[in-house]
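User: Quick sanity check before I run a bigger batch. Here is a single chain. Can you write out its predicted 3D structure?
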Amino acid sequence: MRRLTHIGRDGRARMVDVSAKSMSRRRAVAAGKIRLRHQTLDLIKNDRIAKGNVFATARIAGIQAAKQTAQLIPLCHTLSLAEVKIDIVTSKESANVKCTAQTVAQTGVEMEALVGATVALLSIYDMCKAVDKEMQIYDVRLIEKTKSTVAVWLREPHLRHVRASQRRVAHRATATTNDSRIKRKS
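Assistant: Done. Predicted structure follows.
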């Protein structure tokens, strides 16, 4: 078993030093569900919840929360998020929330995706608590985490004058020669 990265040799909690890691495109997807009564789902669908549009509010809450993850989780790094997306789909007895977070950074965005999904679910709960005392949030989990190394600048100044489509090909070739983990795309 690998050792925990957030625990130092002395047993104390610590923030992981990611300064030696290369910048990479990071993406994470988290999901969760909230069980709702059929009547509650009908009220939501017909926009009859007194507090307002439940799913619109939950989307905004999830996006805001993902952006504040480092303020909520003590050892998380502060990340500049490129995208946070909240998708909500209903079934017969639940609302299923999916949060996708993306960035280019030295560390992953899985905590941001998990926080976004969880707070969106909590927002649905808050907006519906007056009409449904049986709601249950469950099955919150990370469902995808990806990382791909990307070049964040071009060393060759002459490439600035090349057409955009040629620049992308040259950019991939530059990244390929600088990092053996990237394979050239044809």
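The longest strand covers residues 136-149.

User: Great, the batch can go ahead then.
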